[in-house]
Write a structure and sequence with these properties.
The chain is 24% helix and 35% strand. It is of the alpha+beta class. It folds into 2 domains: 5-234, P-loop containing nucleotide triphosphate hydrolases (Rossmann fold, 3-Layer(aba) Sandwich), CATH 3.40.50; 241-351, OB fold (Dihydrolipoamide Acetyltransferase, E2P) (Beta Barrel). Strand 1 and strand 2 form a beta hairpin. The chain is elongated and about 75 Å long.
Length: 352
């Protein structure tokens, strides 16, 4: 099966400033690839390079087996959805959605049929005669998606399409985009700095930092087995707990008092960072590695509390059922050693 998209050794600089450094990504047909990373990591530049909006300094961009390095944007068989919607203000919704078809010379009657089909799929058929100024933000984004869909391209490119929406609408549109992907089965490359969007939408996440890929993997893999400290810190809400310590025998000994855990066979005396996701710090020590902790802050979220703890004098974060912790109390907690991650504090790499 031919890959839908291959990015091979992509490099891009602006003057003397490198933005992408030897990026390699492959997307199978139907993949939902999310380019994830902080502002300035190069994710939007990479998306624009795929679209042909930015040239690259080195490497190959291959779409459906065809090298498109020198192919104009309009001939790459891609469709792009921007965060700004980019709708024509003086056109109706129907005219905005049908505009790509008009540019291809498709007859008015056929164009109308295709526009209505797309509008029904996005549940905006009642809006076809309105103009963009008469629409809400979510409706405008549906129109922008409809304009991309009607072209039936090989690849869809989404550039932070939900960043202009409020929190409630973002959740709603996220669900609609996921449903849309399942229905159409097309390859999507999606840029965001929001890790919740990445985790809920992607079949494969590409984590970028300073133009370099840190990890590529399924959401569960990137969350549960982060390649390094950057990925571990960037993925996960609340953030991962990192506790400094050292190896003694076959034990991790935390700096300060109160926490030891069994570890893989590692060099005695070696400095190490222990990583624990919030779900592996339990309010009940039974059956777990028991440890004394001080509850510093309790943040209610409704169904559960985010609990900020001091463990061996270091900050830790847990998620517990509502009402089980009180700020200021000292208590025994349980640490599930099966969820422990270990990192080299010098190079940041995960160990084991």
């Amino acid at each position: 099966m031919t890959a839908a998209l291959v990015l091979k050794d992509i490099s891009k600089s602006y003057g003397e400033v490198p933005v992408l450094k030897g990026v390699n990504v492959e997307a199978a047909p139907g993949d939902f690839i999310v380019l994830l990373g902080p502002s300035g990591c190069g994710k939007s530049t990479l998306l624009h390079a795929i679209a042909g909006l930015h040239s690259i300094n080195a490497g190959e961009i291959v779409i459906d087996g065809r090298n498109v390095n020198d192919v104009p944007t309009r001939e790459r068989d891609i469709a792009m959805v921007f965060q700004s919607y980019a709708l024509y203000p003086n056109m109706t919704v129907a005219e905005n959605i049908g505009f790509p078809l008009k540019m291809r010379g498709i007859a008015t009657i056929e164009r109308r049929k295709l526009v209505e089909k797309v509008a029904q799929g996005l549940q905006i058929e009642a809006l076809l005669e309105r103009t963009p100024r008469q629409l809400s933000g979510g409706q405008r984004q549906r129109v922008a998606i409809g304009r991309a869909l009607v072209r039936e391209p090989k690849i869809f490119l989404f550039d932070e399409p939900l960043s202009n929406l409020d929190a409630t609408l973002r959740v709603e549109m996220r669900t609609e985009i996921k449903t849309l992907h399942r229905r159409i089965g097309k390859t999507i490359v999606y840029v965001t700095h929001d890790q919740i969007e990445a985790m809920t939408l992607a079949t494969k996440i590409v984590v970028l930092n300073k133009g370099v890929i840190q990890q590529i993997g399924a959401p569960a893999e990137v969350y549960g087995r982060p390649a390094n400290l950057f990925v571990a810190r960037f993925i996960g809400t609340p953030a991962i707990t990192l506790i400094d310590g050292r190896i003694s025998g076959q034990q991790f000994i935390a700096d300060g008092d109160g926490l030891t855990l069994p570890v893989p066979a590692l060099q005695d005396g070696r400095r190490i960072n222990l990583g624990l996701r919030p779900e592996f710090l339990h309010h009940n020590p039974e059956g777990k590695t028991a440890c004394r902790a001080v509850v510093e802050i309790v943040e209610p979220t409704g169904p559960e509390d985010i609990v900020l703890l001091k463990v061996s004098g270091q900050r830790a974060t847990a998620k517990w059922p509502t009402g089980l912790a009180k700020a200021g109390e000292e208590r025994m907690i349980g640490i599930d050693a099966k969820g422990a991650l270990f990192f080299d504090p010098e190079n940041g790499g995960r160990i084991g």
